[in-house]
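Sharing a chain and its predicted structure for anyone who wants a worked example. Both blocks are below, sequence first, tokens second.
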Amino acid sequence: QVQLVESGGGSVQAGGSLRLSCAVSGRTFSSYDMAWFRQAPGKEREFVAAINWNGGMTYYADSVKGRFTISRDHPKNTLYLQMDSLKPEDTAVYSCAGRASQAYTISDYSDPSTYTYWGQGTQVTVPS
């Protein structure tokens, strides 16, 4: 059974930084595509960033491009999201997601229905 556990959320002033972590159990992390999604109150789940199984390709939502960085550490079985220059509109519950890597198209990386495993989420709050 694969489990994903997020950590690192909190409250930070606008312009500040946070680093989210997603610890993945199991020995197949190195073969998984991984992603971060977020959901603000009253809004649909939104794609944030994705990284392919070997870290060679990354994808970002336009709203976070240039401010957020997704990365992965295979020996630690951990996915990261470095968030800089945070804005009030970044306030949301952030969840990590994973799936066995296949021949997905670029658009599939932002489609939550293509991900099999999900964490419970961690709250990020940026007061206005």
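Comments welcome. The longest strand covers residues 92-100.
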